[in-house]
Amino acid sequence: MKQKIQNLSAQIYPEVIAYRHHIHANPELSFNEFKTAAFIKEKLTAWGVEFTTMANTGVVGLIKGDIPSDKVIALRADMDALPIKEISDKPYKSNVDGVMHACGHDVHSSSLLGTAYILSQLKNEFSGTVKLIFQPGEELLPGGASIMIKEGVLQNPAPQAILGQHVMPFIPTGKVGFRSGIYMASTDELYVTVKGKGGHGAQPHQNIDPVLISAHLIVALQQIVSRNADPRLPTVLSFGKINANGATNIIPGEVKLEGTFRTLNENWRKDAHHLMKKMAEGIAESMGGSCEFNIMHGYPFLINEPHLTANARGFAEDYLGEENVVDLDMWMAAEDFAYYSQVTNACFYRLGTGNAEKGTTNSVHTPNFDIDEDALKISTGLMAYIALKQLGN
């Protein structure tokens, strides 16, 4: 079976590159992946894979092995791009100004298409069902995963486990990474409006300065991390946007702040929300102003189920060689795959795409992000192999 998967992976490899180039050149923002979905449906139809549409642009395929079994496993790929202007001279660079696949979702979708082809060619030789989830909107709250779950993507049939694969430019091409247990952080968006009384900068005694209040808030709120969070629990609080709209001699009437809060414990997350809001409102009031502290509740933390992850890692070592499977550290970025991990057994692993000689070590979410496409030689077959082994084949 492994040799057959490897042969089919090599066979479909040039096509997978072509799929990736097409999707990369035609990126679509979150929940607008209509052309990408149509492209995926076209390929699945050609291979005789039945599918349904969910969450408007999501595509869910089913490949049933001819050997009877009630076991089901799901494989997930996201499809959306980011609002970033690409810096590239590659022939497959984005054709859409200000939109690019800067997080590798083109890789994920094209790889899962390759996996679908492999499985469609082997269905008379395996037992169980593989559910293919091509998901929209990973990059935008509330996250396509949450919507698809509400619409029943984990039902009819219900998978006993779900796997997700994501590019990682900091891992060399040819290798993959796994971590058991808690892996990625929850994420919340913070929107703060500090109100005061604007006026002339030369007459501060006649004003209530929201800029000064905001400065106090930004510094004081770090106490939530340094003095309220358990030091053994990773916690991040960052403000990346401040809009005062004053001038050198004009104190504005209000200041808007935007930031993010991330952690790895749901109870502490809830407590921190209360502490941040209470502290900000209290400081603003004590300085004569007021504060509206709004929290947009984002993705939960992502947990890799230990038994499933151990199995998947073992299968990867068998497929690639033990030397090509590495350990991952906790990662304070967030992923809406976390929603799946909260309701079923899940394993989210990393596909190495880094190659210094080819210039593919730039981080995701940057305008010059790209991958070493040699990674596509293993991305399709590996996922197929892990899926079939997990199904008991």
Would you give an account of this structure?
It is a single chain. By secondary structure, the chain is an alpha/beta fold. The chain has 2 domains: 2-184 and 300-390, Aminopeptidase; 188-297, Alpha-Beta Plaits (2-Layer Sandwich), CATH 3.30.70.360. It has helices at 2-25, 34-46, 105-122, 144-150, 210-221, 223-228, 266-286, 306-320, 338-343, 376-390, and strands at 50-54, 58-64, 67-78, 127-135, 161-172, 176-178, 181-184, 188-195, 199-200, 235-243, 250-251, 254-263, 290-297, 302-304, 325-327, 345-354. It has an 8-stranded mixed sheet, with helices on both faces. Strands 10-12-8-13 form a 4-stranded antiparallel sheet. Strands 7-14 form a two-stranded antiparallel ribbon. Helix 3 (105-122) links the parallel strand 3 (67-78) and strand 4. The longest helix is centred in the first third of the chain and has 24 residues, at 2-25. It is elongated.
Question: Key features?
Answer:
8-stranded mixed sheet, 393 residues, Alpha-Beta Plaits, elongated, 35% helix, Aminopeptidase, 4-stranded antiparallel sheet, single chain, alpha/beta
